[in-house]
Amino acid sequence: MRTHSPPGSPPVAAIKPQKIKPVNHLNQNLGEKWRDLSETSGEAVPQDNQSLDSGAEGPAEPEGPGQHSSPSDIDAANGNSSVQEEGVNPALHTTQNAPEIEHYDQPAEENESDEQEETKQEQKHKVDQIQEEQDNNNKEVDAVQPQHQQEVVPDQEEAQSEGETSRDLAEPEDTEQVETFFSTMSHRFSDIRLDDDNGIPTQEFLDSCYAIVPVLDKLGSTVFAPVKMDFVGNIKKINQKLISAPGSFPTLQSIVLHEVQTDNARVRNSATEALLWLRRGLKFLKEFLSEVNAGTKDIPGALNNAYGKTLRQYHGWVVRGVFALALRAAPSYQSFAAALVSTEGDELKSSFTSGIYRDLGVYLPAMENQLTILDALYEEYNLESDEVV
């Protein structure tokens, strides 16, 4: 027989708002108790769990006067051993509180979510602290690194400067200027100063011709001996004319004009004839040195080209044969270069080639200019000769 609550009894709904927090703890304590009972009582607890499930799922029965949950009941439920010590039927008690359990399931889940949220926030806070510590460490490293770099950079600059100094000390030969035969000559065509009317000073010109004779020796003192004898012989003939009347022939033009006026210009062994052959010999040397200055390393080939442009057309087969022998015996470029330096071994330096180009670049243009002036003089007075010797 069902019992109903007396008319004056407070409704359950009026009590529930005051039980929000206690019920949550009740649910948690009940869950812990059922787990403890499952470990100790074996099969009896599953029956209670079934009763709990059935009570939770079944319709809620109205509470009778003896089944009304009072504050003392709640306090008893919060105890650790209230269920077992008082002998209360867990199924009955759970059935009576089933509506309350159902009503407070959602707040319990919200509390669990709150706890998980708090746990996540704590973990996030710890991660932030770790990240902040790492950032601080990185800042300290960054603060130390520039100082270290500043220490390293001067070391690198010092090492670089030491390396450059070492290279400068180790390679003095490459930067040292090499003196060549053409920069140490006692007399050079480039040193001659012409008169106002392009007059070529006689003595200076002859001295410059004497100064270039050693080039023939450097090409081969034996094989070029005949060429050298002819070259020096012509210089001596002009010098004899000069000393025959001191002060009368200050320039080469004055000698030629004097012999033209006296009809001695075409006489054999005259100064005019000697100057003709000396001029041809100088052209031969100029063409050869121009090939060297152009970068050729083939000395025999350069000599042969120069001979074909200048002297060959004035030589008979005998003299040509002599030159042919001389060309075959011409030295290599290395031997010829060694003969052009003042200090032994300078031809091996990298600055030797630039030194030769520098000196010949000054010497040859002056030489060519003076030969051009003489060509114009002989052409003007028709003093050229096609005679073959």
SSE layout:
Layout: H1 12-15, H2 20-41, H3 44-57, H4 71-78, H5 82-86, H6 90-96, H7 98-103, H8 105-170, H9 172-175, H10 202-212, H11 214-220, H12 225-244, H13 252-261, H14 271-293, H15 299-309, H16 317-328, H17 333-339, H18 351-380
In short:
The chain is mainly alpha-helical.
Low-confidence stretches: 12-26, 40-110, 146-154, 166-173
Helix/sheet category: mainly alpha
Number of beta-strand segments: 0
- How many domain regions? 3
Amino-to-carboxy terminus distance: 167 Å
CATH topology of the largest domain: Glycolipid transfer protein, GLTP
CATH hierarchy: architecture of the largest domain? Orthogonal Bundle
Outline the biggest β-sheet.
none
Number of helices: 18
- Please tell me what the overall shape is: elongated
Q: Which CATH first-tier class of the largest domain would you pick?
A: Mainly Alpha
How are helices and strands ordered from N to C?
A: HHHHHHHHHHHHHHHHHH
Q: If you compute it from the alpha carbons, what radius of gyration comes out, rounded to the nearest whole angstrom? A: 63 Å
Into which percentage range does the β-strand content fall?
Answer: under 5%
The CATH superfamily of the largest domain is known as: Glycolipid transfer protein
Share in helix: 55-70%
Task: Tell me, rounded to a whole number, the average pLDDT.
Answer: 74
